[in-house]
Design brief:
Blueprint: E1 2-3, E2 12-13, E3 24-27, E4 30-33, E5 38-39, E6 41-46, E7 60-65, H1 79-82, H2 84-91, E8 100-101, H3 104-113, E9 119-124, H4 133-145, E10 149-154, H5 160-166, E11 172-176, H6 182-189, H7 193-203, E12 208-215, H8 223-234, E13 250-254, H9 269-279, E14 286-289
């Protein structure tokens, strides 16, 4: 039995067993990344799809994902890979099935081979990348050596020592700030808002950061909550203590019914636009998505 220290769950994992995320295991008494190099998706995407609006706009980035996640968002759009244990149990397939192995060196070579098609680097996305931070660290180092960029698309649910291992190699992040109440994170997402806030506060000191908030009707769609969220973002500072928060881009996205939230209506477009107006009271760059 050993303790995984990647996120707030601090899973005690027995030999050969898996933690909550479905991607970390205990091997010879040590916690290791069970999905190291095991990819479920590789795609050359527009950078705006991450979404990143103010980081090399018009470029493309090789986007890769594995399986597993340490949250349980009932509206997950990639639940087949993110809710790995649950989804696989329903299908009867073993953990890690449907993946293929790509070593860090191979992924770095693949990224470089797409330069002629406008590729600027690699985005670690689709599932939660921080749960396989060792693979990201090893790959991102090689990507950096080739003069290319590394992007993380993450829920921000990770301890700061884990983030520190990656920051020297990461150029940009899109971090989900899914709401701004502890109860929403705890009761709906199975997460920890305060951990995400600490993660964002540290990340903005070292790399380009954009944030995304998906608006769920009746859950996180209040104007006061958006006002508090954007006010908090506006107070962030860079590594030298300079105020940069008002320049951090915020993407406010429309929800569509799916997975375990098929009983809800899609978010009203007018509501998304109104919340964007509220956020613009404090923030310079607010974008609406899925509208």
């Amino acid at each position: 039995m050993a303790k995984c220290e990647v996120c707030f769950r601090q899973c005690e994992i027995g030999e050969g067993m898996l933690g909550f995320c479905g991607a970390r295991t205990c091997k010879n008494g040590r916690i290791v990344c069970a999905n190291y190099g095991r990819l479920t998706a590789v795609m050359l995407d527009p950078i705006e799809k991450k979404p990143l609006a103010r980081f090399y706009p018009g470029s493309r980035i090789l986007s890769v994902g594995s399986y597993g996640c340490n949250l349980r968002c009932p509206f997950c759009q990639n639940y087949e890979i993110s809710w790995s244990k649950e989804a696989l149990a329903l299908s009867g397939r073993p953990e890690g099935s449907g993946t293929y192995l790509l070593a860090p060196e191979e992924l770095a070579e693949l990224a470089a081979s797409y330069r002629a098609r406008g590729n600027i680097g690699v985005a670690f996305t689709y599932n939660e990348p921080m749960i396989s931070y060792e693979y990201i660290r090893d790959t991102a180092r090689l990507i950096k050596e080739q003069g290319m960029k590394n992007v993380l698309v993450t829920n921000g649910t990770a301890e700061l020592p884990v983030l520190e291992e990656l920051l020297p190699y990461i150029d940009a992040m899109n971090i989900d700030l899914k709401g701004f109440t502890d109860s929403y994170y705890r009761e709906v997402l199975g997460g920890d808002l305060q951990m995400v806030l600490r993660f964002i506060d540290r990340a903005v000191k070292s790399c380009h950061v954009e944030l995304t908030t998906l608006i769920i009707p009746g859950e996180n769609d209040g104007e006061e909550e958006m006002r508090e969220l954007s006010a908090w973002v506006a107070k962030r500072k860079d590594g030298e203590g300079n105020p940069i928060g008002t320049e951090i881009p915020l993407h406010i996205s429309r929800f569509f019914p799916r997975f375990h939230m098929t009983d809800k209506e899609a978010t009203d477009v007018g509501r998304v636009y109104r919340l964007a107006e509220v956020a613009r009271e404090r923030l310079s760059y607010v974008y609406t998505g899925n509208c």
